[in-house]
Amino acid sequence: MSASLLRRGLELLEQPGQAKVPLGLQRGRAGPWAAGAARPRKKAPEPGRNKATVKGRVVKSAIEEYHKKKPVNHLRENLQYMLKGRLVADKAVTEQVLAQNRGRKSKDQPPEKTEKKKPKGTVFTEEDFRKFEREYFGVP
């Protein structure tokens, strides 16, 4: 079926009270830069105040501008906000949250904590060693 036959069929199905589509909007010619459409002209400069002149301009104080742009220290407010809530979560809950946020790669896992071995002390005292020495070697 050709496009012209399709268009004629649509025209027949159109209701009689409905207006036809304007020629510019047919066949995908939409927008200001469509083929055959006139280009929009630049607006002429409106008569008004010349912004290059100084007349009527309010002089701004450099000190006021400095105070406006001066950084404000929010440390005290932030500390009060942070210290206001003293709710501490259980250690098990925090560990679970940290484990969920941790990646699955081995580089993301924390190093395993190894328990330090305490040097074993002797159960023998100095007197026991002297006694053994006397009995074994015969030293007085």
Describe the protein in words.
- Residues 23-56, 98-125 are annotated as: Disordered.
- Keywords: Nucleus.
- Belongs to the AROS family.
- One of its GO terms (molecular function) is enzyme binding.
- One of its GO terms (cellular component) is nucleolus.
- With 140 residues, the chain is an all-alpha fold.
- It has one domain.
- The chain contains five helices and no strands.
- The chain is elongated and about 130 Å long.
Number of domains: 1
Strand content: under 5%
Shape summary: elongated
Poorly predicted runs are none
> Helix- and strand-based class?
mainly alpha
Please count the helical segments.
5
Total DSSP E strands: 0
Topology as H/E string? HHHHH
Helix proportion range: 25-40%
Please give the radius of gyration in angstroms: 45 Å
Characterize the largest beta sheet: strand count, sense, and whether it forms a barrel: none
Mean pLDDT: 78
What is the CA–CA distance across the termini? 127 Å
Note the quaternary state here. single chain
Notable features of this structure?
single chain; mainly alpha; 37% helix; 140 residues; elongated; 5 helices
Topology:
Layout: H1 3-13, H2 62-69, H3 75-84, H4 91-101, H5 126-137
Protein name: Active regulator of SIRT1
Biased composition (Low complexity): 27-38
Main location: nucleus
Describe this structure in a few short sentences:
With 140 residues, this protein is mostly helical. The protein is built from five helices and no strands. The termini are far apart.
